Amino acid sequence: MIVTALTGIDLWNEYTEPCIKSIRKHEPEANIVCVDNGSKVPYPIGHRIERTSYAGFINYVVREFDADWYLILNNDVVCTAPYLSIIEELYDDCNYGNHLLNQDGVVWIEAWSILFSNKSYGKIGEWDEKFLMGGFEDADWGIRATQNGVGQMPLALPFRHFGGKTRWGIENYSETRLNNMQYLYEKHGLRITKPSCSCKGD
After folding, report:
1. Going by C-beta distance under 8 Å and a sequence separation of 6 or more, which residues neighbour residue 63?
2. Is residue 196 part of a domain?
3. Range of the domain at 43
4. Nearest in space to 26 (alpha carbons), one of 74, 92, 77
5. For the domain that residue 122 is a member of, what is the CATH number?
6. In 3D, which of 175, 166, 178 has the Cα closest to residue 136?
7. N or C, which terminus of the chain has less Cβ within 10 Å?
8. Across all residues in the chain, what is the average pLDDT?
């Protein structure tokens, strides 16, 4: 089974509902899990968790929904074509995503769109929920994927990203993002020369 999971904070009408409708248009049989990550006005459907972290959302989905594959999405995306048949042909010892980054030797998939198998999750382990809200938890998971022999490959899944439209509205998010970056450096002993800490396009 393939689970398509998306999460967001607020902006149900603007992003989350249109995202779900776009998936249903192209993949009417998709198993969609929608998680409200602590919106001020609760979503009318789906599951709700306390607003903690993007990593917490991913771990919640894996714990609660047993599947062979998990496609993780931000809510500020739209589906533009069918995708389930693409996933069925992939190797299950590799993670995939629309945007693969390689910065100073650190390789990771930007988690606004990341696809991984239950097998890969078992090798790498849970996403680190010490990365609050969202930011650099995907870099941490990418580093750990490499350490545990799990590959990372770009894959042009049919989703268009509007670019961090929900996270940057969170109070004190810029400060939280910088703290996440510092935690990443300390955890892995990194010295990244040009950290992408202020870009609002992810």
Report:
1. none
2. no
3. 2-188
4. 77
5. 3.90.550.10
6. 178
7. N
8. 90
Q: Model confidence over 93-145: pLDDT tens digits?
A: 999 999 999 987 889 999 999 999 999 999 999 999 999 887 899 999 999 99
Cα distance between residue 33 and residue 22, in whole Å? 14
Structure-block tokens of residue 53:
């972290």
In a domain, 193, yes or no: no
**CA atoms of 137 and 181, how far apart (whole Å):** 9
Q: Which residue has the tokens 């047993």?
A: 66
- In the chain, the number of structural domains is 1
Three-state SS string across the chain, please?
Answer: CEEEEEEECCCHHHHHHHHHHHHHHHCCCCEEEEEEECCCCCCCCCEEECCCEHHHHHHHHHHHCCCCEEEEEECCEEECCCCHHHHHCCCCCEEEECCEEEECCEEEECCCEEEEEHHHHHHHCCCCCCCCECCCHHHHHHHHHHHCCCEEEECCCCEEECCCCCHHHCCCHHHHHHHHHHHHHHHHCCCCCCCCCCCCCC
